[in-house]
Structures are given as structure tokens and as C-alpha cells.
Write a structure and sequence with these properties.
The protein has a domain of about 140 residues: endopeptidase fold (from Nostoc punctiforme) (Alpha-Beta Complex), CATH 3.90.1720. It has seven helices and six strands. A hairpin with a 4-residue loop joins strand 3 and strand 4. Helix 5 runs antiparallel to helix 6.
């Protein structure tokens, strides 16, 4: 059996078309597989599957956010300032309150002493009470000043001895000072009424209960308060009788003063 040229050509064309179709299909399948593989790789390479997302942060942007906010005409934000370890903060930025200091004038600490007391060496007055004695004599009424001054000279300079007791000594002081006496407060030893501390003044002749010596009746010349709240006062007191001792400046408890006699001119 023989084939015609036309038949051969037709057969060759058919074979070529068949081969081209197979090859094309294979290439198409290969291309589809490659596209699918790239697609999968692209999915796993996306940021949602990445353990460390890539991000670029501008150093300039970071400094601007951490530094000062810019103010515009609409909204003004507060300024945020950061300080490094080497920053120098002005004292006015963080003011500190200094520790309180208490100052007293020289007059309050050590009142000026009377010239006659500066060189004296006395055994009948404690030196710590000399300023109080000076104040009593220089800052009181005329009549009180005469009494306090006369009593100081009799006790410290003359060391006078008067016959009798406390009443006799103060009577001599008032007479020598040339003053009279007015009764300001009068009570009794046992029942009072007892005077308040604000009723007592410098130069007053007081009758009071001596709590430091068996609660006996006693009298003395008031010089000034050592502690008014505690009723502690400096008093010129005379023991008298047969002791032959000059009057002394001592601190007494004046909780129970039942009579006050005040000097007047």
C-alpha cells in the first residue's frame, strides 16, 4: 500500500500539532505550578508571617517626639524638657526652703546691766538674774523704780541688817524710798482670794504662802517673772530675826498671793 504525498504531508502536520500541543500543555502546567509556588512564597514572606517586622524609624522623628511640641495658633501644648546626667538645673527651677533660723536681739539675749552691777561680786543674788533686776529698775514706774533701786542698794551694796523680820525690812525699804503704799488686793492666808499673775507689778510688796518652806506666811518685794506660767518669780526676801544675813534675791512660787501693796508717790 502506498501513500500519496498529500497524505504524508497531512500526517506530518497532524504529528507536529500533536507534539506542539503536548509540549504547550506541559509548559502551561509548569508555568501554573511556578505561579502557585511564587504565590505561596509571597504569602509566607508577608509581614503577617514575619517574626520581626521590618520598620524604619527616623532618628530625627524620634527626637522631635521626645523633645518640644510645636505650638500653633489653634492649640498650644506644654513644653516637655528632658535632662541628661550632665544637665545643669538652675536653682530657681527647683527652689528649696532654707531651714528656719531664730534670731534674737542683743537686748533680748542679754539686757544691759546697770553700771553698779557690772563689777559687783554678790553672794545673795545669782548672776543669771542680774538682767532681770536691771530691767525691773529701768522699765518701771517712778515709785516702783525708787523702791527697787533702794532695795538693791540696801541688799547688795550696804548688805543692811534690819532688826525684825520680813515685814520690818520691807517697811524700812518703803520708808527710805519716800513712797506710800496702796493696797491693791487683799485676801487671807487660808481662804484667799488669791491674786492672778497679771495683777502683780514690779515693786509690789506681796504677802504669799511660802510653798518652799512649810507653807508659812511670808512677804517679799516683787522684781519680775522668771516663768509666769509656772508662777515662778524673782523676789527680794529677808529672813531677819537672829540670822544677821542681808536680804537675798530668790525664786519663789507665787501660786497663793493673798495681799498686794503697791508703791505710789
Amino acid at each position: 500500500m502506498s501513500c500519496s504525498p498529500l497524505s504524508l504531508v497531512s500526517a506530518s502536520c497532524s504529528l507536529f500539532l500533536l507534539t506542539f500541543g503536548v509540549v504547550g500543555q506541559a509548559q502551561a502546567d509548569s508555568m501554573s505550578a511556578l505561579i502557585a509556588q511564587k504565590s505561596v512564597q509571597s504569602d509566607y514572606a508577608s509581614p503577617s508571617y514575619s517574626s520581626v517586622p521590618s520598620a524604619k524609624v527616623s532618628t530625627r522623628s524620634t527626637i522631635q517626639r521626645a523633645g518640644t511640641y510645636r505650638a500653633n495658633a489653634v492649640n498650644t501644648q506644654p513644653t516637655i524638657t528632658t535632662y541628661s546626667a550632665t544637665s545643669t538645673i538652675k536653682p530657681s527651677t527647683y527652689p528649696t526652703q532654707p531651714a528656719p533660723t531664730y534670731r534674737y536681739s542683743a537686748q533680748q539675749q542679754t539686757p544691759a546691766l546697770l553700771p553698779s552691777l557690772l563689777s559687783g561680786n554678790y553672794d545673795n543674788v545669782d548672776s543669771q538674774y542680774l538682767p532681770l533686776l536691771s530691767t525691773a529698775e529701768t522699765q518701771s514706774s517712778l515709785a516702783a523704780r525708787e523702791v527697787v533701786s533702794t532695795a538693791r542698794k540696801m541688799a547688795l551694796e550696804e548688805r543692811a541688817i534690819i532688826k525684825g523680820g520680813c515685814w520690818d525690812y520691807l517697811n524700812a525699804v518703803f520708808n527710805r524710798a519716800g513712797v506710800t503704799r496702796d493696797t491693791i488686793h487683799k485676801g487671807t492666808y487660808g481662804q484667799g482670794p488669791y491674786a492672778r499673775s497679771d495683777e502683780i507689778e514690779v515693786g509690789d510688796w506681796l504677802y504669799y504662802i511660802n510653798h518652799g518652806y512649810n507653807r508659812v506666811e511670808h512677804s517679799g518685794l516683787f522684781v519680775g517673772w522668771v516663768d509666769e506660767n509656772a508662777k515662778q518669780a524673782l523676789i527680794l526676801s529677808y529672813a531677819g530675826e537672829n540670822r544677821r544675813e542681808p536680804a537675798r534675791y530668790r525664786v519663789y512660787d507665787l501660786s497663793n498671793v493673798y495681799q498686794i501693796m503697791r508703791p505710789s508717790v
